[in-house]
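Example record

The entry below shows one chain as it appears in the dataset: sequence first, then structure tokens.
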Amino acid sequence: MKAQETIISENNETASKLVAPDLTKRPPRSLRVELGGFAILPRLLDKCRATLASTNGEYHFNCPLDQLFLQFVGLNPEALQEQVATGKNDGEMLEWVQKNSSIKRGVWEIDAWTEYQGRRSPHPNTDLFEYYVSTLKEIGPSRTDTQSWAELLDLDDYCSFGGAA
């Protein structure tokens, strides 16, 4: 069962309930989980809700991964966070994203972008590549099957909550 916390927040003169995951007890959803065809969005929403509820642990909203999604659709992270704070569920947030994105993407663009995010890996000879390699050495030094950011994040999430690489 997923650990969640409900907090009450005041927004526009009405009380709303924000159901937030406790990311000190479990990781956010994988970047491969989709909402409306978008990869990353469910993970971003988990981290945003947890940040608002102060249950984000070591996870950060508006990190470079979140920014990939926000840039792809043309959204301001503060505006998105303001909407999340009203207690909107995933479906309502997807509607808000689709309505308020400054870059309207076609289904084929979303599909291609989402597919790419699942297999995206760091380019050699970059700081990100060094970070990727050092993180993999730390959490799964014998792993040879981890090739993408999605695989690395899934492994890191798993190991962070007691799993063995």
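Notes for this example: Residues 107-119 form the longest helix (13 residues). Residues 115 and 148 are 12 Å apart (CA to CA).
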